[in-house]
Every structure is written in structure tokens, then in C-alpha cells.
Amino acid sequence: MASLTVEDFTTSEPSVDPYSSGRARRRRIHWGRGVVLVLGFAYFVVPLYAALDFALQNIQGGFSFSPLTQIAGQPGFGSAIWLSTELAVVTMALTMALMVPTTIYVHLRMPRFRRFMEVITVLPIVIPPIVLVIGVLQASPLWLKSTPYLLALVYVVLAMPFAYRSLDAGLGALDLKTLVEASRSLGASWIATIWRVLVPNLRTALVSASVLTLALVFGEFTVASLDNWTTLPVWIANSSTNNPHVATAVAMIALLATALVLTVIVSLDRSQSRRSRRS
Amino acid sequence: MLVETESETAKLKPAVGQPEGAPVVLEGLTRQFGSTRALDGFDLRIAPGEFVALLGPSGCGKTTALRALAGFERPDRGRVLVDGVDVSAIPAQRRDMGMVFQSYSLFPNMSARDNVAFGLQLRKQRASARRKRAEELLELVGLSEHVGKYPHQLSGGQQQRVALARALAIEPRVLLLDEPLSALDAKVRADLRDQIRDLQRRLAITTVFVTHDQEEALSMADRVCVMSKGRSEQIATPSELYSQPTTAFVAEFVGVSSRVNVTRSGDSVIVFGTPVKVRGGLASLGTGDLDALLRPEDVDVRVAHDGMGIVVHRSFLGGTTRLEVGIGGETVRADVMSSVADTFELGTRVDLSVNARDVLVTEQRPLI
Fold it and tell me: Which of A234, A236, B172, B226 yields a CA-CA distance of 20 to 30 A from A105?
């Protein structure tokens, strides 16, 4: 880092020979970029490597696959995975059912309201989850507190900024008013218009909204922990005190699984939309 | 302006085939947007199978009128009757009106065939039947080779033809065209214009066409409704509109007119020193100064060494040449045959006279 100076990024140095100095400058800039890239890469990879290294150790500190093979047998692991999956599905369904019609309505009927919506939908990010969950737990009725679905409702709120932003961008790219009017003049109800005309054309936006929601539910700790539900992140945190190697192995697998799901969904979307996207 | 009687409306049946379209009546439509009144008591009667163009400058209310008919705009006052039934309270999706939009409106995720079949699918037609019908309609608009293509693979003109086929697929009672040609280039526009007109005649479907292009309106429509400030100025056949404009707005918006200051003389007015009859009489006009509105072909030009006018500009239009003659501080446009245009050099002194039976006279525009 010490060798990196401002000059590495600037091109203001005067020179007699413009050609050779241009080349030298370019080389220096590339060199500067390379350093930033390596640093950035290290920043992400070193912790991952450390976690992986730790996950593949036995108690004595030697290399071993035993933490991986032990995962399935760990008490509570299966139910934690199941609960997180269930919450992810419910959260995604609720988020889409709420946000798709809302965003369409705002775009069509209240375009001036869009700026206001942007501010409102940022609130869940601005308000700390701890504040949010204490408020929710205080206010919600007992019958709801006794089910994990209260958690799904909180997640819907937390996922709103991502869902709204994705959908807002997707709708902005469509000639929404014309498509809606064309569909309705052909006899389609509002539901048919949304389901058969808008949703297929919002696929990319819906996919990114779902992926972000999924990632959120599988990573959220504060709310789940305070609401006393053992979701996957809570389970990892709990078992890291008893069996840190296994807990880290689970975290690594969760990370890989999320990355895999993301890749599959994004590549599926790309191959499908290649057929039908607007030029 | 409900001037036609029922019998007059009945006369306006299409020339070919039995009319299948529905009669449409717009009655006293009023629609206010904030401080702007887009429609101000707009009336229009359309006979079954008739092709009516709504023509006017932007902001005259023509699109609002069409959208009120389609059900996308709810008028504050007035009624929309289709086939004698008040449809004002019926939502757009149950009005059975095919619509073609100004911007490309095809569903990007569907092929041309699926776009056309969409309305049939909503009407629960069997897959094989709607597929066949969609292909027939695409053939009708000359796109049988493109049935499987997606909108982004089609040109603008092809997209609008698919949109037309899609609108016709549901066998609409009324076909609504909202400036469907304005996004296309000149050659495609002319072809599609003929195609739309031809199809409309063959299917005898009641059609309302919104445009700001007078050439389009005059060449396609059975009747043209010229609109201004949310009202209809005149509803007439294209030739009547051109030769017998009833208001100054129509005379100046449709075709070319020159304003000439005139003086009263009994029932007539004196134009270029000669009395000429006034269309519709002088009774409805105030006591202020008057202008006559003259078409270039209604003005005769004659070389005269002591003439009052001077040729100030000349433009060749093909068969005719348009002269601009300065006379008494005004400029009058007059057409002469191009074969004799050489006798009217710039600066030539000329005399003007009116060769029309009567002229449209209006109160003078206030000086701004």
C-alpha cells in the first residue's frame, strides 16, 4: 500500500515524448488498478479461506472432512433448515403478492408518488432491526407471536427495499400504460393483465427481488434470535459454541448453496429472456 | 354539434357490404384535467361501419375523446352510447373495442401469433381454433411469414400491423386507432394507411381514427371531425371540409387560407373591389371589421400594369405554382398553372379577383 501514490492514478505528469509517456502512464494506471483488484480480492477471499480451513479441521487441528460428515447428524440442523426454507417461501410469496400490484399501481396512477415511495421503502434499512423487532414483539398479538409466521411478516418489511427497487427498475423499462391498456382493451381483467402480460415481462426484476429476499431470510439473525426461533443463522450461532468446526462448515455450505442458487436462477433467466427480450 | 338527423346518419352507410359495426354516439362529453378542459361538451354521431377521423392540433381533446370511448377515461359529464346502449359505466375490458396505439403496444414476451390470439384466449377459444384465426388475421395484414416472430424481431410497420390484427381478432364492435402511423416513416405510413382503409371497408367496422395529420384524415376518413379546445368545430366529408369550411379555425387548420380584410356591402362583402356572396350570410357576425378566408385556388391572378398587387414570392408545386401577392399590406396566396407561371416574375404588378361562388367571412382577429 505504501508504494501506491496519487500519481499512479493521474495522468497529469508532463513529458517531452507524448507517445512513450502515454504508454508509461497507461502501464502505471494498469498497475494501480491491479493493486486495487488484488486487495479487493484478498479482502473477500482471505476470510473465506480462513473459514474453509477452519471448517476442515478436526479437534486436534489436523485436516479432516469429519465436520462435513457430522452436519446431518447434528441436533436441530434439519428443523432449522426446514424453518428457514419455509420462511423464505412464505416471505417471497407475501412480498410479491404485496409489492407487485403496489408498484404497478404507483407507476400507473401515482407517478408523482414514486419519490415518496423510495423514501418509505428505505426505512427498513435505516431503522436498526433490533428496534424494529422490539416494536413488533410489543405490538403483535400472542397468537401470532406463537407462530414463526410473525417472523415472515417482519421479513416482508425487511425485504421491501430490495423488492421495491427491483420492481421499480423493471417497470420503468416497460411502456406500462400502453401494455396495460392494450391488454384491457382486448378484454383482460386486471388480474389477467398482471399475471399474463406484466409478470412475464418483469421476470428479471422478479428474479432479482426473489433472490435478494431469499438471501435476506437465510442470513437474518437478530430478529429470529430475539423472537426465539431457531432458523439456520440462529442454529449456526448456537452450535458454534459447542462445535465450532461443524458450525463453520454449515456456514460455508450455506454460502455455496446460495451462490449456486443465484447462478442457476440468473442463467435460467438469461437463457429464457434471450428469446423474447425487446431489442 | 348534433346537426345530423337520424335519417342523415342512416345515409352514411358504407359503400361495400352490410354494416357489421355498431353505431356510436358521444353526447356532451366533458372532461377536466386540473385547470385544463380537455373536452367541453363534445358531441359526435357515427354511423355503423363509418370511418371517422378526429383531427386537431395537440391538446384539442381528440385523444381524450377516443379514450373516453375506449373506457380508459371517465368523462365528468356526458354519455357514450354504442349500439344504442349507454356504456359509460362499463369498464374498458368489457367494451369489446379493438384499439391500436401510437406507441408499439405488442406484448414483448409473446410471438406475433400469440399476441393476436391473446384476446381469443381470454374469450376461452380452443387453442387450435385461436391459432388458426390468428394466422388468418396475420395473413390478412400480409405477415404470414412472420407469425412466429417476437416483437423485437419486427419492424415498426410490421408491429403496427400485428397490433391491427390483434385488435381485429376479437371482432370488435368499434375499432379505435390512436395515431397508429405517427411513429412510422413516410413510405411505410402511406402503405399502411391504404391497408387500414381497405381492411376497414371490407370488414365494414365502425372506426374512429385520431390524428393531427390532415392529409391522413382527409385521405382515409368518410367524415372528419375537426376539433379545437375540446369541442368539434365541424363534422363533414373531406371534400366538404376543404371547400366549405364553416369556421375560420377549420379554414386555416385544413389546407391553406389567406386572410383578406373586406368591407360590407348589403348581403355581400367587397373583395378586391368586387362584391362576393358570404357563405352562411352576414347575420351571425358582429359589427366589427371582417376578414375573408380565401383558398389559393379560389383566387385568380391577372397581369395589370396599374394593378394593386405585387408578386413577392413564387414556389413551384408541380402542376401548379403558388404565388404570394402583396396587396394593401396583406399577403394573398394564389395558385396558377405552372405553364403560365413565367409571366408572373417577382415584382410583377397584378390584379386579383375571387373565382369562388361564395367566401367564408369571419370577424377580424384582434391585434396582439
Answer: B172
